[in-house]
Here is the input.
Amino acid sequence: MDGKQGADSPQCRLWNGPKGQVWVELQSLLDQVFKPLEDLLMEGVQAGMPDRLLDVGCGTGSTTLAAAQILGRRQRCIGIDISEPMIAAAQSRARQQNSSAAFVCADAQRHIFDPAGFDAIISRIGVMFFDDPPGAFANLRRAAREDATLSFVAWRSPAENPFMTAAERATAALLPDLPPRQPGAPGQFAFAEEVHIRNVLAPSGWDRVEVRSVDLPCRLPEKDLILLITRMGPLGGLLQEADIDDRARVIETARAAFDSYVRGTEVHFTLACWLVTARASAGSASAAGGSDA
Ligand SMILES: C[S@@+](CC[C@H](N)C(=O)[O-])C[C@H]1O[C@@H](n2cnc3c(N)ncnc32)[C@H](O)[C@@H]1O
Here is the structure.
């Protein structure tokens, strides 16, 4: 990773470890599941047609590649991610697709971007993992020109996303070591509360903040459901790392919790998201608040 910034943080270790590997291995399935989120962000890209776009926490690159396709070769699309295996996968996809998208492996929270270098910053569920969110968004503000657009999708609460938490809820009684969710901590549901999003963005140099609640219908082939259950989320992590007694029973119990989502050969579910948009505030970008950088 460039400059090893943040290289010892828990999130960096996580995304450069088994979690990053799973996202690489399941790239095609995850991109299929999260395509409605990508479409939502691409509507904004299409409307704004920025010359220079940054995709934060771009992972294996789907949204950066989609933006580059929309904007064409004369525009600059950069994806930044803290995970070396995910960035390697994104670079390989860009070569295969002959895309002009480029990728940087670095911590977006601390990376020293060219000041005012971007007209648009996007992210598909890639901005909830910072250990200092105001500092991170202030850093992104410095990377944005005045009036640049910020547009990202983040998850609403676990309660509003029962599909995503069904496996851990169903198996909790069987697995005392299953790590509990910590509300507000860096991770999947860190931006579940609208007020928290606003409290992060306001002091970080972003204004005209709009937080829109969006429910997106998603689907995946039923044959792939078991992969999501056994590889993703807290249960997936535990199954990969720990020697679990009666593994088969745990998996069977988790799978049964999804029966109500199965329709024939497909699984149908709704993802509860926030679509957050904002503008880089007027004034000196270097004055943007936050505790970092
Ligand atoms: C849930 S994944 C989403 C990946 C991608 N946006 C997608 O939709 O497929 C979150 C991503 O954020 C990245 N990430 C976490 N903390 C980061 C940081 N501080 N700087 C850059 N990327 C980070 C992870 O490595 C991971 O790729």
